Amino acid sequence: MADPRALFDLTGRVALVTGASSGLGRRAALVLARAGARVVGLARRQDALDDLCAEIGPNAGSVVADVSDREALGELVDRVNAIYGAPDIVIHAAGVNTREAADDVTGRGWDQTLALNLTAPFFLSQALVPAMKEKGWGRIVNFASLQTTRAFPGGVAYGASKGGIAQLTRAMAEAWSGDGITANAIGPGFFPTELTQAVFEDTDRAARNAAQTCMKRNGRMEDMDGPVLFLCSDASSYVTGQVLMVDGGFTAK
């Protein structure tokens, strides 16, 4: 038997992480780099991407772009490929939550949410898949949510996008896994990120969220490291079309 630790070695792999400027996207980029991958961070804030690349070191590059701009997708892929070559791994961590109540949802908020959270992961993956097919190896990791299966106040558009991510992940697996490309999703629980800042600033609300989990605590950034590395490596070679909830057991109750 080979050393099981080698299953998690990403040396020689190229990873693209959207939403890499902050939160769970940034954490994913750091983890993949420390596992040996060369990482391209994609986001809209150059200064934050510069900080990420400085922390990772020479095996990191960045692209500033709006991943939801479908008209610029071809140019975006060319810019990504120009850094380290075509990615073997793509993590779709970019996202937005407008938190509009059902009666107040606007067309603009709805379109923005669906474009970034659901449409962009598909079309960017579609553009990257041909190179993965040529290699016979690829990893697509989408970001689901507690709202993939649960309804939260102010979450109509966000919940619709994340419910769609679960089915999109299954459809991607059906379409592409025969070519050696796995497609899975991670569903985070309550983690302290920019997207959930308002939740964690309300200490009573944060405590209530923690109490609803089996583990009686909210997520810590390091809780995401193992699941991300698993789904991006050879360790998950026979896992596809799945949503892995990393939520301390919130959805188990």
TrEMBL record:
Keywords attached to this Swiss-Prot or TrEMBL record, sorted alphabetically, are:
Oxidoreductase
Cite the SMART domains for this sequence.
PKS_KR
- Any single Pfam family the record assigns to this protein: adh_short_C2
Q: Does the keyword Transferase apply?
A: no
Q: Which PROSITE patterns match?
A: ADH_SHORT (PS00061)
Q: Enumerate the InterPro entries for this protein.
A: KR_dom (IPR057326), NAD(P)-bd_dom_sf (IPR036291), Sc_DH/Rdtase_CS (IPR020904), SDR_fam (IPR002347)
Specify the Ketoreductase domain's residue ranges. 13-189
The record's comment on protein family reads: Belongs to the short-chain dehydrogenases/reductases (SDR) family.
Q: What is this protein called?
A: SDR family oxidoreductase
Q: Which organism is it from?
A: Ruegeria spongiae
